[in-house]
Design a protein that fits this description.
elongated, mainly alpha, 140 residues, 0% strand
Amino acid sequence: MTYTSAPEPDPATVEAVGKLTEALETVEVARGHLYAFHRLTGTADFTLDEAIDLLRHAGHHDLAERLETELLGRNVLPGRWTYQVVEDYEDTYYDVFRAFERQARELTGGRRHLHEAELKRNRRTDGLRGHEAFPGEPVA
């Protein structure tokens, strides 16, 4: 990513944009949980399919038929499978949130994680291995 040659933002701006980025990071985790929900529900549906076959093989045709008809492939929310829940979340909330965070980063010249960069500057031990300022920095 290339950054603009904007002047250093004031500390209040860095804090505000950092807080918005922190909120986006939480949204990213929530999105990950939605994908886990999607994957786990899909796995359960395929495992249910196997259970139905096993019930049939064991002679429990009525229960197998009901499971196949009433539960296999069922919507998790009215009219929606899990992939549709994920898509709706992304289209309705996630994409909008990301766009606002990108717009706010214009206030920092496009630079990300300025708060963390300041923490790194203040907490690292100059010249000590494992405390390099950037990848590939030679250690004295």
